[in-house]
Amino acid sequence: MQKKHYLITGTAGFIGFHLAQRLLQEGHSVVGFDGMTKYYDPRLKERRHAILSEFGTFTPVIGMLEDKAVLDKAASYDKPDVIVHLAAQAGVRYSLENPKAYVDSNLIGTWNMLELAKEHRPEHLLIASTSSIYGSNEKIPFAEIDRADEPMTLYAATKKSGELMAHSYAHLHKIPTTAFRFFTVYGPWGRPDMALFKFVDSILRGQAIDIYGEGKMSRDFTYIDDLIEGIVRLMRVMPGENNRVTNIDTLSQHAPFRVVNIGGGQPVELMKFVETVEQAVGRPALRNMLPMQQGDVPRTYAAPELLEALTEFRPDIPVAVGVQKFVEWYTSYLAEVEIR
Asked: Which sequence ranges form a coiled-coil region, renumbered to this chain (predicted)?
């Protein structure tokens, strides 16, 4: 296998950490860029980077996406063959509290990354998007060719805007670009603001868990290993006419640009998810039933056919298996050192 140089943003984050670790284990070199922001406890991010730093081919660079000079420094270490832009201000609900963070990171930061790609000409640029851009679409499952023009939060609006900006750069500068839409990713080293982390933490502490929407929502959960497999396989599929997939493809007619869901198409009802967590933890949860929060959507449901057609892969790790692995990680490591 040819060894490549990767520039990945967000390597101290949940997904970026796992992707960088996979590529480093395969013998590639990775320059990892991260802002170490305080959206959640930076100590968790520092531990992720510490693990990656055990590889001699990992180079960490700390800085904000809004700082183009620091991004340029990151790209100067190794001319990147592939750029994967994962860093972003995440969180649907936090966008109601601090919208400027989303404009700075997800709009200005993404524009800086596109400028970087224009200057360095990677063989493939991959950009993270989200299932949140589908809003409250009533047509299910959510297919990439469906309209996604009614975002319910600023977070979703900034991610859709990132897709549009990336398309324009792919067209103007002929940069092969793939944007992938994530569906509720979970697993070891996950974010503390995500439901699974909160549920496990609260159950173990004997505290009530908040269940929004009266438990009537559903989510298409994607275990982290499945997500990383999907990303790695998509890296090898540069958008172009030689790999167009008939009527389900989003390959642009004007640019080497494509949007792809990474999700298994197996949504799970929230109450079933809670029961799965209870079984993995080994004790029942105290349940605090609440109305749906502002910005929430009733369901997410990926159409995985395009991903499978391009990569011969679709996420299939059952939620029960993934939740058990998360609980084992949490109880054996995170709970012991009490990082929050």
From this structure: none
Query: Tens of pLDDT along 209-225?
Result: 999 988 889 999 999 99
Average pLDDT for 54-81: 95
Closest CA to 167 of 254, 238, 103, 104: 254
335 assigned to some structural domain: no
Number of domains in the chain: 1
Of 155, 169, 186, 223, the active-site residue reads 155
CB 65 within 8 A of CB 109: yes
Residues whose CB is less than 8 angstroms from the CB of residue 284 and which lie 6 or more positions away in sequence, other chains included: 203, 278
Is 155 assigned a catalytic role? yes
Tell me: the pLDDT tens digits for 168-180?
Answer: 999 999 999 999 9
Domain range enclosing 56: 5-187+221-263+299-318
Is residue 13 domain-resident? yes
**Number of residues in the chain:** 340
Residue 338 pLDDT level (bands cut at 50, 70, 90)? low
Q: How would you class 287 by CB atoms within 10 Å of its CB: exposed for 0-12, middle for 13-18, buried for 19 or more?
A: middle
Read off the amino acid at residue 221.
F
Examine residue 16 and state whether it is found in any structural domain, yes or no.
Answer: yes
